[in-house]
Amino acid sequence: MWRLGAAGALLLFAAAGACTNGDDGMDPNPAVPTTVDIFPDSVLLTYINEAKPFRATVYDQNGSLMTAPVSWSVSDTSVLSVAFDSVNATVTAVANGTARVLAVAGEAEDTVTVLVQQRGSRLEILSGNEQEGLQGTTLSEPLVVTVVDFGGTIAGGVRVAFAPDEESGTVSDTVAESDAEGRASTEWTLGDGRRQSVTASVGLDRRKFSATAFADPPMPDYALLEALHFTRLDPLDTDTIEVGAVISNLGDGAGPARFPVRLTLDGETLRTVQVDRIAPGTAETVTFTLGPLEVGTRQVGLEIDPGGAVVEWEEENNSAAGTLTVVRQREVRLGEPVTLESSTVGEVFLFRVEVPEAGNEALNIELSGGSGDADLFGHYDERPAYRYQYRCFGVATGSDELCQMAPARAGTYHIAVHAFTPFGPSTLTVTVGGKPVDPFDIELVILDGGTGEQESALARAADRWESVIARDVFDWDHGAFDRVPAGTCGPGSPEVTDEVDDIRVFVTIHAIDGPGNTMAQAGPCWVRPYPLEGAEGIWLQPTLAALVLDEADAAQMESAGMLESFVTHEMAHALGFVPAVWERHDRLRNPSVPDSPGADTHFDGPLAVAAFDAAGGTGYMRAKVPVENGGTAGFSDSHWRESVFGDELMSALLTGDAQPLSLITIESLYDIGYEVNLGAADAFVVRGVGARGAGGVVIDLGDDVAAWPVRVLRMGAGRGK
Questions:
Q1: SS3 track for 317-338
Q2: Residue 297 in 3-state DSSP?
Q3: What domains can be seen in the chain, in order of their start residue?
Q4: If both were cysteines, with which of 181, 255, 264, 277 could 220 make a disulfide (CB 3.0 to 4.6 Å apart)?
Q5: Cis (ω within 30 of 0) for the bond into 292?
Q6: β-strands 371-380, 392-394: how paired?
């Protein structure tokens, strides 16, 4: 590198000036465009309307860059179009072919060659799909696809592959080139399969042709397309269960008059039955009775035509299997203690106890003594599938737990003891009576309005329901777990940050809409969750509820002598006699709200249905227990059907000289999780359709079920057992 000082630079500048300027001040050797270079120097365009930019660089006679105007053109405008400014150009594909791009600056020029060759990007099936034909014959219609390029233009000259799937025969051309209209085709000769397919592909795109083949003579294709169905997946070692399967005939023939189906257990044949032929395109359900089985994991299988005697389209779809986990349940006798312990976290002990006759006292399931932490669960009648489906639970820290269920009913009770940590040795004892039962408490909070008599009627209604519900539910500490914001439980409701035992009902008596129309609004606002991880969404009993009475209607009810029945009815809604709670306990069937006024709405609780039958409802021929329908929000789906129940307290109208609280209503509370006192029921007989009391008073309660949402509280820390 040469470096010049300041003086040297000035001399050089002067010398240069002396050499380049003539007497007239003009440059005697002006720059002339001598060379043009186009970039890029080769291009492939793969779809119509694909555009590519080009740039021209101009050099003078000395090889130096210079600025000069450039004109652009293409040799074949049927292949390419060009748009340009003084230096740059954009070339766009018009059709397949080859053309040159020319850039000219003065006397200099450069050309590049551009190839337009469409590539297939997508296929569209034009014809030949979903045909039918005999095995081994060529279908009447060829398989035809249309090829389009990336820009969506029909593409000719593109190679399309056609590949038959397994047992799907052959094609005349495995590769076909698309014509000027973008069409590629092949002929398909069917193979041995029942449902056959050919895949057409170009690039990454795939399209599948399907066809149905027929045999000559026709053949059946018996298939087990679904998994086996079991009445339950965790049967006891004393249970018998049903195994069901759906057998479909996917073929075109019916086959022999009968065909064999084999049931296996752990790979060994249990029995084989003969099934009557199944018509093509139809299905039949077969059922086997299985058990009792030994404890452990058991594999159950079903196989159609195990000997292969039936000629079918396919044999691979002739079997299905399922897994059972068989568990042991020990029997416990009333009053006889059982000792148990576990060194394994998560171990579950199952027991059952038979109660020979019903009683009014509680059934006590008690676990006591030992170290560690065990959880206790109890349930009446059918054994639940999961721990959090048991109605009674003890999940406190430690191994001393008590479950009480009232009343003690005749029949089977199921018990589960879960090792939250290793525990024991502990003693499990089941008894009837002899232990105090914590009562159910209703806390009334009068927020606004009301006369002395109205408050007294509310207190008597609370006392009545406290006598009906036979046992408390676990307390909920809103300060520790889930604070309830103000205004979320009826008008003017306060924030709740303390412990609730067992339900708090906020009462407001003020003007709603004057006499008649809406007389009250009542219902729960917040409900307890089941206090176990994995049980989120399981609703238990309400912790907070609201009851709003129209002051004008309350005064009229007081004058008519029906105030106590009125508020007792509304308090039942507060306790959970509402559609939202029924639905979450899977009790409400065929609701009529919002748009099915003619639905046969009913409450499907087993104890309530039994009480309905016992009260004279055995001859009722529709679904039980009938609930008011009609599709009216706040009224329908939330009361017993008036035409069947007449004067009963929870029917849609208050009628008659007395409004009995029936055993049906009490058992409906049991069906949604409350323990109940059956002796608190009034005498009541189902009179049937058209029932109506002898009294002349008829009170239409209107939309007395509140529209506010029912929310489930969140499980807080310390409740995750």
A1: CCEEEEEEEEECEEEECCCCCE
A2: strand
A3: 35-116 (2.60.40.1080), 122-214 (2.60.40.10), 222-326 (2.60.40.10), 329-432 (2.60.120.380), 438-578+706-721 (3.10.170), 582-703 (3.90.132)
A4: 255
A5: yes
A6: antiparallel
